[in-house]
């Protein structure tokens, strides 16, 4: 998968790892990701997906932190959460929201197979043990889109590793080292221009 990565992504990581700040950063990131992905959704269905996406992204914040604790890089941990989201989109037939082509789902799953197996994450069960006890809010599926999937936001050819596009436009395999200017304060009041969905 190809992600973007800059100093703000590291600031969000620090904020999520900092007691007292985490809940504010978490809420802001959930809200922002939901807005970004409902913007990619079929407008006829965007509103009805919001509560489900809020729950999904809130749960993936936990898998992101767990991946970091297990030694994955920032880019790898974030990619794990994006893969989980794409499994969920696929299961609902929300192909227009997908970031990776349908035929690359299995390859992405296999790359993080040990982590996914440890936490019971599968394509059919995107959250595994990270799913909240009450489950996620229901949202209508569009399974007919799986018959001839269109995913205008998906970029294929990046299933073998995590690829990071830097602020300067360079493509780096595996991600970048944490920069010196990762300021937690920039992660508190998130605005739309502060972060890309990837």
From TrEMBL:
Compositionally biased region (Basic and acidic residues): 144-154
Pfam family, one: DUF6149
Composition skew (Acidic residues), residue ranges: 177-198
Alphabetized InterPro entries for the sequence: DUF6149 (IPR046147)
Location of the region described as Disordered in the Swiss-Prot/TrEMBL record: 126-198
Protein name as annotated: Uncharacterized protein
Species of the source: Haloterrigena salifodinae
